[in-house]
Amino acid sequence: MLARPNRLTRGADYKAVVRRGRRCAGAHTVTYVSRVVTDGPARFGFIVSRQVGGAVIRNTVRRRLKALCFESLGAVAPGSDVVIRVLPSAASASFAELRTDMTKCLPRRVA
Q1: Counting beta carbons within 10 angstroms of the beta carbon of residue 24, is it exposed (0 to 12), middle (13 to 18) or buried (19 or more)?
Q2: How large is the C-alpha radius of gyration of the chain?
Q3: How far apart are CA 110 and CA 75, in angstroms?
Q4: Domains of the chain, first to last
Q5: What's the whole-number mean pLDDT along residues 14-18?
Q6: Dihedral sign from CA coordinates of 32, 36, 40, 45
């Protein structure tokens, strides 16, 4: 589970990332990444519409993405805001397919 400092919670934050962030499209997700001025922790937000499926399917996909974000938290650049919009094809995607979408689009920490 992502801790509170690692989650986007305000609608204005979501809107800013989607409008100003860089976009990366995968097979099952569209990822928007924006670097903020502060050097705080990376924050993640998820957009899962009803087109993905019923409540059980949507929540399953969201939980999988949260787990993947938690796994990659150490590798993501600090100060990044990430919004992941889920496409309807994600309802039938496996965990491994979602992982490849995520690793392709997440910003990496610069050593």
Answers
A1: middle
A2: 13
A3: 9
A4: 4-104 (3.30.230.10)
A5: 94
A6: negative
Q: Which residue reads 């990332």 in tokens?
A: 17
The residues that bridge with 24 in the sheet, in sequence order, are 31
pLDDT in tens, 31-86: 999 987 777 899 999 999 999 999 999 999 999 999 999 998 888 888 889 999 99
Q: How far apart are CA 75 and CA 16, in angstroms?
A: 23
Q: Is the pLDDT of residue 110 over 60?
A: no
What is the structure's pLDDT at 111? Answer: 39
User: Phi/psi zone of residue 44: left (φ > 0), alpha (ψ -120 to 50 degrees), beta?
Assistant: beta
This prediction's pTM:
0.90
- Token output for 11: 């609608």
Report yes or no: 80 and 33 within 8 Å, Cβ to Cβ.
yes
Nearest to residue 63, comparing CAs of 95, 33, 27? 95
Kind and range of the H or E run holding 100 = helix 95-105
